[in-house]
């Protein structure tokens, strides 16, 4: 423990120098001070010419994509026979994200002080979830760390691809609706009142649609701060409660699966993540009962998380995986039958991987269909809203022209 605390105060130094043959060499060293760096290098027969402390002041954020790339790079180098610590050095030097570099060097320091790789990862739960650490531990124990890291990288890449596709399907309609609301608000607050001044000077009766639009405009002008405050405050409160309330998360997860258009896409994406996680865990040699702990959490949905707990309880009492999945009532027949074949043939990892491939392709196709469907629907909505306002404002002018 003392060593770990002392390591927290170590810094990374970049150095330049010449070896015994006079050749210019460079490197980096983790030490307490410049003096320690010079002393250490001098003992190695290196004539130090320059030492500079590596700065991590540039703020950065370690994203899930960074962790995925890090995993893929580590898997590639370890498969090529590069030693573990050297692999960490290569990856740290190759990244342009200072926060990721610091994270990698911190993990390397823990390993140098005698910690296992999975233990070093567990010290950073913000970046390495339990599933990741459990798989690494299984790989270390079985001596197949390079294979496990390769499966982990593939798992994270496919999971991110599914999430990205769902986000892309949702981003376009949401962004268009937000822009439409802002444009409508601007028209109501600034444009319609100018028309109202002109129409007042006519002294004639105005058409019904025009009166409705003008009444809405008056409400926007008088209470715009309440409208915008309630809207943005409601969105903030919703996400605040969603993140902190388990009941709210349960409700939203149920609702997400019942949505008319997006619900089926979300269900297929959840099934893809569930089966992909099961395949990855089982292929790494993790026992089925232990693997289900990570599988449920990785699904990302409360319904499937609870269903996984039920499956685990039934398997613990001697039931088969296929029967337990059927009893939950949330898995499609195709997925259950494929898992059944894998269970009978002893290839659960391969069959669940094929199920994941199938649902990932289904998500791809569904997102493409949604994109082609949403565009005309959004154009119709925008045409009705914006076009309706414009027509309502021009009706009195058309009426006046007819009288003249």
Put the structure in a nutshell.
By secondary structure, this protein is mainly α.
- Major β-sheet strand ordering: 2-1-3
- How many domains? The number is 3
The CATH architecture designation of the largest domain is Up-down Bundle
How far from one another are the termini? 93 Å
Can you give a write-up of this model?
This protein has 404 residues and is mainly alpha-helical. Helix content is 77%, strand content 6%. It contains 16 helices and three strands. A hairpin with a 5-residue loop joins strand 1 and strand 2. Helix 7 runs antiparallel to helix 8. The protein is flat and about 100 Å long.
Features:
404 residues; 16 helices; 77% helix; mainly alpha; three-stranded antiparallel β-sheet; disordered N terminus; Receptor-associated Protein
Topology:
Layout: H1 2-7, E1 11-18, E2 24-31, H2 34-43, E3 47-53, H3 64-79, H4 84-94, H5 98-112, H6 117-122, H7 130-142, H8 145-202, H9 208-244, H10 246-258, H11 262-283, H12 288-298, H13 302-316, H14 321-328, H15 333-345, H16 348-403
Antiparallel strand pairs: 1-2, 1-3
